[in-house]
């Protein structure tokens, strides 16, 4: 069976042109290459989003705007581009997936949504709240496939088993990251400065990474393996 994977849509405003609702192509293509089918879920109607998710076999939470700090009990000091409608849909679909026991794969913002929804918190701005010499926000001129730094995977985790290695080089495009880890989640990978680069649930339902493997599925085996594992879980 080719499983249906729900992906919440971004809202992209373009000057002088209609606003676009959609998902970055690499997410869609990575799911398709791994054998899945894509179901894009628009913002604006949470009840309809949950009903639509009933037809899906898995949930891919993607990158996007910053999560509203109010959701983890903080004032907004350094979060930008907060999108309340996107938050509403992401959090509702995550609840629906957990209720139904459907697999969840979180990427970048997706990892942050998972952590906040389950009771954790975020660094609103990594450079000022977790300063280090590690490059977590790659300059755009270097491209989306640029490998910014290495991460270390924790032995015995599902992530390490899928990747097949304890050290990999990753791309990096974020200014926010996991701070306090939510109950029920465990850290599966860290960058050299100790920043959380991966999370998963004890029951194996949830797996998340801070990097962007969707940009690397055609160039690295570990990135393709993450999507293949996700689609395999969804098909079951």
Could you characterize the architecture of this molecule?
Helices cover 29% and strands 25% of the residues. The chain has 236 residues and is of the alpha/beta class. The chain has one domain: Rossmann fold (3-Layer(aba) Sandwich). A nine-stranded mixed sheet has the order 4-1-5-6-13-12-11-8-9, with helices on both faces. Strands 2-3 form a two-stranded antiparallel sheet. The protein is globular, with a radius of gyration of 16 Å. The chain starts with a strand and ends with a helix.
Rg over C-alpha atoms, rounded to the nearest angstrom: 16 Å
Give a quick account of the main beta sheet: strands, pairing sense, barrel closure: 9 strands, mixed
Number of DSSP E strands: 13
Kindly state the mean pLDDT as a whole number?
96
């Amino acid at each position: 069976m080719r499983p249906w994977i729900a992906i919440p849509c971004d809202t992209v405003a373009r000057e002088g042109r209609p606003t676009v609702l959609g998902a970055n192509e690499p997410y869609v293509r990575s799911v398709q290459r791994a054998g899945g089918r894509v179901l894009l879920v628009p913002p604006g109607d949470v009840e309809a989003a949950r009903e639509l998710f009933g037809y899906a076999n898995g949930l891919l939470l993607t990158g996007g705007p910053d999560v509203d700090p109010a959701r983890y009990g903080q004032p907004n000091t350094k979060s930008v581009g907060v999108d309340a409608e996107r938050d509403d849909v992401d959090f509702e679909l995550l609840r629906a997936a957990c209720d139904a026991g459907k697999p969840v794969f979180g990427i970048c913002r997706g990892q942050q949504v998972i952590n906040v929804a389950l009771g954790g918190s975020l660094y609103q701005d990594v450079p000022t709240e977790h300063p280090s010499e590690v490059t977590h926000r790659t300059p755009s001129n270097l491209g989306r496939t640029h490998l910014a730094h290495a991460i270390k995977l924790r032995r015995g985790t599902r992530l390490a088993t899928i990747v097949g290695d304890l050290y990999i080089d990753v791309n990096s495009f974020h200014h926010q990251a996991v701070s306090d880890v939510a109950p029920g989640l465990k850290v599966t990978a860290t960058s050299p400065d100790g920043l959380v680069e991966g999370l998963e649930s004890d029951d194996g339902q949830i797996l998340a990474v801070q990097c962007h493997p969707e940009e690397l599925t055609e160039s690295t085996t570990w990135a393709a393996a993450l999507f293949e594992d996700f689609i395999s879980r969804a098909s079951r």
